[in-house]
């Protein structure tokens, strides 16, 4: 009322409502990088501001290499074709993080030839857990003669050893 009587604007600033940060139980990435991945899942730019009306996601840890074993047999036995899935890999002796997202199951080819595809899958890399400048994203998948590969913007001639491996089932919450 005082501001109205003096014909001045109040000093209080109204801020937009805060959007809950992405929560993830990861030994590999922090919530800041998880928010970037969620933006990519929603086909937005990495630095897009999350809004109140944006979907929320729950990340259910279904596999951790340090707990369950870092080998393909352990992964296949526990994974059980759960989708959509986020996979994260931390490299030993480096801060490098690789990962991928797929809304469809990873099939075990011992069950016969199954061909599935999605335009929503992607792979990515971060130079470290604080990296928001040098991250790389590859959405485009090329397929020819039954061989497929993503565009080479993630190409790296280095050889890495896996330090930690995590897989999360993604549950969209409305």
Automatic annotation (TrEMBL):
<protein>
    <submittedName>
        <fullName>17304_t:CDS:1</fullName>
    </submittedName>
</protein>
<dbReference type="InterPro" id="IPR006571">
    <property type="entry name" value="TLDc_dom"/>
</dbReference>
<dbReference type="Pfam" id="PF07534">
    <property type="entry name" value="TLD"/>
</dbReference>
<feature type="domain" description="TLDc">
    <location>
        <begin position="27"/>
        <end position="171"/>
    </location>
</feature>
